[in-house]
Design brief:
single chain, 292 residues, alpha/beta, D-Maltodextrin-Binding Protein, domain 2, 2 domains, eight-stranded mixed beta sheet, five-stranded mixed beta sheet, 24% strand
Length: 292
């Protein structure tokens, strides 16, 4: 699939929002800080599982915080571009794509208790009874990526396949984009597709939720470490607010957050940390600078 600035902004999906948090305490406060979340799972579940994070940020900032979940990655990027969001949690590739159309910058990255690191892996997973044991076995099979803008659900697995001599555009029998990692876990578990791309930590979460069974699945391919999903802000936010927001994220510790699981906390990051994503994009002949 060809990525263009036009395709990124072709549609502005509906955005799901939660009520303002702590509204009574901030009845006379300025506009809330709006925080966008990528749709790695059901939108209501995303907001519910991020509630502790939003509450902690709200207390630290002493201002209301309002979370949003868009219908897809592009919806979050467009909301940042149109200044409907102040801060957002993006996938690494969706962040790099987002910098080509929106004036945004990475400033924080999460470390989970389970991983104890600020990186993760992309996996290609199949059912054990599919007969798929290695990448060549994928030829002619049905396959599900997550989203065209997904790092672990599209960019890295597709680039990895190409490096191994497998042509994802020709060698699969059929390819779909499911829209979420959870959907991929369910699809491969139920035999709707032969194999899927999925982030390792989200597969672990899907298994914990009963959406898939580890004993039924086999890992066909695993990527090198990928820098964790960044939290980004609009560059035009007030500098004083940026300092407060980064400090608030650095104060977040020991709480559950969405598909990340329990967090140790956040670490500062910057745009250069995601150059590996740009390099991987070159494997797919994606010139991000010329996307328009």
């Amino acid at each position: 699939m060809k990525f263009t600035r036009r395709s990124l902004l072709a549609c502005t999906p509906a955005v799901v929002g939660a009520p303002l948090l702590g509204l009574g305490r901030f009845a006379h406060a300025a506009a809330p800080l709006t925080v966008g979340l990528i749709p790695s799972e059901d939108s209501r579940a995303m907001i519910a599982n991020s509630q502790a994070m939003m509450d902690m940020l709200s207390r630290s900032l002493d201002m209301p915080v309002k979370p949003f979940v868009a219908a897809d990655y592009n919806g979050v990027i467009e909301a940042l571009r149109s200044k409907r969001l102040d801060v957002a949690y993006l996938g690494p590739f969706s962040y790099v794509l987002g910098t080509t159309v929106a004036d945004i910058e990475a400033f924080a990255v999460a470390e989970t208790k389970k991983a104890g690191r600020t990186s993760y892996h992309s996996l290609i997973v199949a059912r054990k009874d599919s007969g798929i044991k290695s990448v060549p076995d994928l030829k002619g099979k049905t396959f599900a990526f997550v989203d065209p803008s997904s790092t672990s659900g599209h960019l890295f697995p597709k680039a990895g396949l190409i490096k191994m001599g497998f042509n994802p555009d020709k060698d699969f029998g059929r390819v779909i984009f499911s829209g979420s990692h959870d959907s991929n876990a369910v699809a491969v578990q139920n035999g709707k597709v032969d194999a899927v791309a999925i982030a390792d930590r989200i597969l672990d979460a899907a298994i914990a939720k009963g959406l898939a069974k580890r004993e039924d699945l086999v890992v066909v391919w695993k990527s090198d470490p990928i820098p964790e999903s960044p939290t980004v802000w609009r560059k035009d936010l007030d500098p004083a607010l940026k300092k407060r927001v980064q400090a608030a994220f650095m104060d977040v510790k020991n709480i559950p957050w969405s598909d990340q699981g329990e967090l140790n906390g956040f670490h500062p990051t910057n745009d250069a940390a995601y150059d590996i994503i740009r390099e991987t994009a070159k494997t797919l002949n994606l010139d991000l600078r010329k996307m328009k």
